[in-house]
Amino acid sequence: MRCYVLMGVSGCGKTSIGQALAAQGGISFLDGDDLHPAENIAKMSRGEPLDDDDRRPWLIKVGHALAQQEGRVVIGCSALKRRYRDLIRENAGEPVAFLHLAAPKPVLAKRVANRPGHFMPSSLLDSQFEALEQLQPDEDGAVIDIDRTFNAVVAQARRQITQG
Question: Any alpha helices (H) in the chain, and if so which ranges?
Answer without folding.
Answer: 14-23, 38-45, 52-68, 82-92, 105-113, 125-131, 150-163
